[in-house]
Hints:
Bound molecules: nicotinamide-adenine-dinucleotide
Helix content: 40-55%
Number of helices: 11
Distance between the termini: 43 Å
Radius of gyration: 19 Å
Oligomer: single chain
Strand order of the largest sheet: 3-2-1-4-5-7
Shape: globular
Amino acid sequence: MKKNKILVIGSSGQIGTDLCLSLERIYGAENIICSDLNPPKEKNHRKNFIKLDVLDNEMLTKKVKEENISEIYLLAASLSALAEKNVLISWELNMNSLINVLELARKKIIKKIFWPSSIAVFGPDSPKLNTPQNTTLNPSSIYGITKLAGEKLCQYYYDKFDVDVRSLRLPGLIGWRSLAGGGTTDYAVEIFYHALKNNDYTCFLSKETILPMMYMDDAIEAILKIMTTKKENIKIRTSYNISAVSFTPKELEKQIKIYFPNFNVKFKPDYRQKIADSWPDSIDDQEAKVDWGWKAKFNLEKLTSEMFKNLSN
Ligand code: NAD
């Protein structure tokens, strides 16, 4: 009998680069198919890479059947800052990719899906501090609108067709294996590269903009944990709030200065400031803690030290 495999769609991006390595380590590289429009940056990372457009439904279905895929991690999307510049293309990618994958599960071709939502589902009228799981959701960015619609689709496919789709409202992610892919929190990754290469950085958000953030290792652990939790323990079928740390660009600069005392940050807010201002300062992730034992490990000090340790290597 052919072994069931996992397909990662959008594997060459910020999360995919880290997630594929972890999945390969856990399940064996021969059981992980990585796919993207673009090849992986480090060739030795991806044993089974295929070029695949998630919007090409015919090819997607063919590959899923050929490879005997049972689980899909859908990471292909247009992120918040990029989406504001290409509204229709982003709507098409963010929505149709999800519908294509949900349909594969409705038709029982695959068994399980991971799809990330975002803190962008919250809007200017959501509570800013410790934003609860269930609250006002009026996103003002097109990215947030696609994520909210996506959450509702996930709930609908679960209720109506028993599709096992699991989701997290991810905050801004900080990792060292790849650059960020066009989001509003990208500054928190770029700044580390600039600290190592130059003595200065111009930040596109104001120094006091506080946002929820997370070190990549925590995010990967959360994804792996929610995907291996017993089905009956997944009580939320829109998307779970998860949280790790919240900080401002100024606080991150201060932390970086412990390593590079002469590092200097200028603040020149651009169109991304408005998106950031519409998002929460911090997130309440009580439900994720209770339902499947979520707990973040990295605070600002620890993630800064990990970033420099790994980037200088
Ligand atoms: P990314 O932009 O770094 O990577 C996305 C990947 O998808 C890219 O490699 C791109 O080439 C690929 N892609 C684009 N169109 C495609 C298509 N038609 N077919 C196949 N592949 C295609 O994004 P990321 O940061 O890795 O984010 C992954 C998911 O997590 C997204 O849904 C994003 O909204 C969500 N998320 C990310 C963050 C974050 O901070 N990185 C935060 C919250 C939510």
